[in-house]
Write a structure and sequence with these properties.
The chain has 215 residues and is of the alpha+beta class. The chain is built from 3 helices and 13 strands, in the order E-E-E-E-H-E-E-E-E-E-H-E-E-E-E-H. Strand 1 and strand 2 form a beta hairpin. Helix 1 crosses helix 2.
Length: 215
């Protein structure tokens, strides 16, 4: 299947081919709007929050496949169907077909390669399509460690919802009277809402690392 996106040139009124996607087993949406397509049919997807995704994208370099970026900055890689189900990485989600419900991913037209709306951060094409799942996991694992530090042992309470989370993200260090710092954690949903606006990566050295265990 070949899908072509065309635009009209003002001078001649003719059609000029902008984007060509060859040999894809599915048809990207037309250049009108984002389309919700089912995961698990042609591909699964992996979602990473902006900070983690940017680090992983840099690590992958030319080994990445096509990447979608949504208007929040999160990045989505397409991977082979069934190549993985879940990874224990903070804020990272594997989107795949579930037994009891259908999951959809908003896919922009192939010609949308700039923001601020959802767009292809790495354009879709014959040389950039699926990303190797295990290579992607390695890049995301490295990004998780660099951004958030070592994974603490056991579950931690989120400062906001006060529920235990398996994906604790360090958002602050509270200094006590004895000089020992207590790490404040958040779940992936509430980490961006921490009131100080501090970035979790500022805590990956000194007190945070000293109080966290290895994976």
């Amino acid at each position: 299947m070949t899908t072509r996106s065309t635009t009209t040139t003002p001078a001649s009124g003719g059609l000029v081919t902008d984007v060509t996607t060859n040999a894809l087993p599915w048809k990207p949406p037309p250049a009108v709007d984002v389309e919700a397509l089912p995961v698990g049919k042609w591909w699964d997807a992996v979602r990473a929050p902006a900070a983690i995704g940017e680090r992983a994208l840099k690590t992958l370099g030319d080994q990445t496949g096509a990447v979608i970026q949504d208007y929040h900055g999160a990045l989505y890689w397409l991977i082979a169907v069934g190549s993985t189900t879940s990874w224990h990485l903070r804020g990272v989600r594997v989107l795949t077909e579930l037994a009891d419900e259908r999951t959809y991913l908003g896919v922009p037209p192939a010609s949308w390669t700039t923001g601020p709306k959802a767009h292809w951060r790495v354009p879709l094409g014959p040389d950039h399509y699926l990303t190797d799942a295990w290579r992607l996991r390695g890049a995301l694992t490295e990004a998780d460690r660099a951004e958030y530090g070592l994974m603490p042992e056991g579950r931690q309470l989120c400062y906001r919802c006060q529920l235990p989370t398996d994906e604790p993200i360090p958002v602050d260090v509270e200094t006590r009277a004895n000089g020992v710092g207590r790490i404040i954690y958040a779940c992936p949903t509430h980490a961006p809402l921490y009131p100080t606006g501090q970035q979790p990566r500022t805590l990956t050295s000194a007190p945070a690392t000293a109080h966290e265990g290895r994976r």
